[in-house]
Amino acid sequence: MTPIADPCLASAAELSREISAGRLSPVDVIDALLARIARLDPKLHAYIAVYDEDARAAAAAAGKEIRAGRSRGPLHGVPIAVKDIIDIEGRITTCGSMTRLANVARTTATVVRRALDAGMIVLGKTHTVEFACGAWGTNQYMGTPWNPWDMKQARTPGGSSSGSGVAVAARMAPWALGTDTGGSVRQPAAWCGITGLKTTIGRIGTDGIHPLSPTLDTPGPMARTVRDAALLYKVLQDTDDPMPTLEDGVRGLTLARLPAPDREGIEAAVLEAYDRSLEQLAALGARIVEIELPFRLKDFVSVHLSMAEGYYVNRAVIDDPAAKIDEVVRRRLTGGSKILAHEYYASLRLREEQKLRFADAMAGIDAFLTPSTETAPLALATLDQSGLPVRFARFVNILDLCALALPNGFTAEGLPTSLQVVCRGNDEAMALRIGERLQGATEWHLEAPRI
């Protein structure tokens, strides 16, 4: 077996294998990643805090435990990055806001505790859109992470888990924790050329994670490969379900393509990559069919739930004119204050009706395939933030589904495109199975930014 020359370039599964076999030490892995972070992050700005000393100490302790035969499992010694809306006891959780620079967490979120119990080592906290409210990935005061696929021009990293996406894409972490309320795992996964799993609501506990919309918030893994996403998902989930079976392939599965009206407005390169992915899955044995949706996907972009709840959660600072808050975020959440009670409850009722109608449309279908985004990453200098790039993301949250975003090509400019695999709620295993088969037949996920 060829030894790993640079631990930073290895996937989490590869690091697990090498550390477990004694061919690589956790100390070597942490030292390599910290050196890479020190070299690249002053420009990429993925991390808001790097826990150098604690990470090195944890790596040394993990190495001793493994050598003494006290391994905590296959992920012992594997590093991870954590989105900065997730609490770690004794550490500051800013939620991407200047108003929370002194917000020291009193407890550790369940998702982090499970990672630590498995022996993982936290590298640090990653940047987020303020209060996790925004899909572009920008942050006016705390800084916007730099999408590493274009080192000359700043482009949208995707949000709100922007720093997690950039850290994983730039090989400054093998994987990271993100959260998704309306696309916040999948959007940065798509624009940063990595894999992200939006989990079903309630599948992974949210305690210790600062909420945006308690009705819709979900944590999820962000990784380089589907296999890595599956490994981390297994550690984080609340159930004792076995590891998803990834080897079953797609032969005999029925997969639905976008209806013609929902193809409108998609960037040509994104649509070309999407159609190619459908052809590849068909060649692998899947049956690609038309689906007749009872609504247009764009109808979900302006649903009232998340902004109404986001305003309620953050109203103390949103209503304070002296608070130093990102102007775009303040405008969005202030809009939530104008949503009346009957409009909010009408949204809840409509949500339940749409869930039933979508379930009927999905009868006999194993997954619904869409592009993850309408465009490749956009230049920040010309970005119009009056809208949100969540046409293919938000309906998944509203309808309580799960979805996987994975790389499926590049534009002529070398910018990543992404496929989204949408499955029924609690059917993450199916989404991962489809994604794994596609990654087994392609190499898009193996590409790395040239930094």
Architecture (CATH level 2) name: Alpha-Beta Complex
Kindly report how far apart the N and C termini lie.
27 Å
Query: Uncertain regions: pLDDT < 50 for 5+ in a row?
Result: none
Largest sheet: 11 strands, mixed
CATH top level is: Alpha Beta
Kindly report the spatial arrangement of strands forming the biggest sheet. Answer: 1-3-2-4-6-5-10-11-9-7-8
Percent strand: 5-15%
Total tally of structural domains: 1
Q: Which structural class do you get from the secondary structure elements?
A: alpha/beta
Order of helices and strands: HHEHEHEHEHEEHEHEHHHEHEEH
- The number of helical elements comes to 13
Instruction: Tell me the overall shape.
Output: globular
Radius of gyration over alpha carbons? 21 Å
What do the pLDDT scores average to? Answer: 96
Strand tally is: 11
CATH topology: Amidase signature (AS) enzymes
The percent of residues in helical segments reads 25-40%
CATH superfamily: Amidase signature (AS) domain
